[in-house]
Amino acid sequence: INRGNAHSDLGDKQGAIDDYNQALRINPNHADAYSNRASARYNLGDKQGAIDDYNQALRINPNHADAYINRGNAHSDLGDKQGAIDDYNQALRINPNHANAYSNRGLARYNLGDNQEAIDDYNQALKINPNHANAYSNRGAARYKLGDNQGAIDDYNQALKINRNDANAYINRGSARHNLGDKQGAIDDYNLALKINPNDANAYSNRGNAHSDLGDNQGAIDDYNLALRINPNHANAYSNRGLARYKLGDNQGAIDDYNQALKIDPNHAHAVYSMGLARSALDKQGVIDDCNQALHIDPNSTQASIKRPIIPYKKIALSLIAGASLISLAASVIIFTNNLNSPKIPIFKNYVNPCSASFKFKDDSNGVDDCNKAVKINSNVEKDYVKRCSAHFKLKDYSKAVNDCSEAVKINPNNDEAYFLRCSAYFKLKDYSDAVDDCNKAVKINPNNDKAYFLRGANHIMNGNQSQGMEDLRKAASLGNEEAKEILKDIQQQPDKSPT
Question: Which of 310-324, 369-383, 443-457 has the highest mean pLDDT?
């Protein structure tokens, strides 16, 4: 047994197994010989063989806590997370102060989606061992999953204080920084991870995402290329490279990448959604087909693009001066979300809402239908109400637009955009008083909302309050609203004409 341990420490796992076999021929009831042989088999990838040996060790010694923990690890690696939890529970009944049992049970719970229970286990592990780097790192992953990016960063910081060479902790901290908007900080972390492990495909892929978000799409493509050299089956790298190519106008190259992603993972919803965007430049009907296929793959995907409505303010103001009507809203910006896939290897996935295509092609009726589905799936997502409000506005259904923005502000009373949009709808309904009230709320929440000042000025003017209207236009101009500046300039050049 001792020689087997020495072989194992030197990395000679097969030599260790040979020695444990000899020990068991001499003493078939030696629990440690079974347990140690199981560890060697586990390290050689023979997980089922390891489980068989742990079973023998536990038959001989039912109070062997480490055998339960290690058997749990093997069960977990084979996908039996609940079986793993059962083993960790047994270990903790024998030894309630076993930090690794808590930490490993937390990981199994995390993999089953029980993030809060996982955090509770990591907390217990850290009470027992405050220097348990993996417990900090894995708790950070669970916090990340729950949307607590700053809490995740704090945990990764602690893990890195204990182990400065934990490449995964740098990658995961980079993911959290990315989500908080610190794209350069994320890149710095991915760089540190790559110094430790230059062959980490996920680090390159995630760094590519950060470069893309900073507008460096060619730099992003270079990183995705590196990721794919290391792992030619990295579906997300293909999909994200496709997105970067799409942004650079290479629609066919984007489509080729999305096809590669789908060869690897036929259920890669993002690749299908995004291929629709690329195909749109070549085949507008193709985008509808792709979105239908994506919905078949993932009918519950409500996160992704926020189509922020933009009102052409100069036309609004000029139409006010000419006595014309308000111009309708237009959708614009796509914001992609990043998801952590595991406690050790974060994988970014970019999702596009299926109604993105409807907005892109000004298909407002389908946009409303798709947002109806999103709201039905989750009625607490204010952004879906805001998007549907925009679609209703463009369809000139201003009462429904008001209702949707009202739902949005019930969920989030500090959504200045929802107030601004409802103000726009009230304006079209000629309810100038309520419109002014909503613009007041918008600028109270965000004093730098030049759009709200601009539209409030328009409402004041239509309500007969010329002086207040002009004051709001000047305020909008002072906040950088170029349209307000131009209109004020036009008015100054026509001193004898009323601004109405």
Answer: 443-457
